[in-house]
Design a protein that fits this description.
The protein is an all-alpha fold. It contains 4 helices and no strands. The longest helix has about 40 residues, at about 50-90.
């Protein structure tokens, strides 16, 4: 088990941290760990410009969404629509079946 240590902070910062900590976690240590994990996970540091990073993430997200839309459209064209048309034709609800009427049959006679 880890021991406790001390950090010297301004009183106004301590008050602000206590208010924030009540909303986030049970203890101050858990709150600070969550905040550090958040910043490390998202690659954000106080020295980097935040709006630029948000724009880069937004661009990545838009590209991913566009790729997913393309995949879904391809699935619809190659799998869903042909299967749907086959099922409609099977149950007689497709346009081809409704227009066609009776199929053309050739009468063949076989020699004995």
């Amino acid at each position: 088990m880890d021991g406790f240590g001390t950090i010297r902070l301004h009183h106004r910062t301590i008050k602000r941290f206590r208010r924030f900590s009540r909303k986030i976690a049970k203890s101050y240590s858990e709150t600070l760990e969550s905040v550090i994990d958040f910043f490390e996970w998202h690659g954000i540091s106080p020295s980097s410009k935040f709006p630029k990073r948000v724009d880069e993430d937004g661009e990545k997200t838009r590209k991913r969404i566009n790729a997913l839309i393309a995949i879904v459209r391809d699935i619809e064209k190659t799998q869903t629509l042909p299967t749907n048309e086959m099922l409609l034709a099977l149950f007689g609800q497709h346009e081809i079946v409704k227009k066609g009427g009776n199929p053309n049959r050739l009468n063949r006679s076989f020699k004995k």
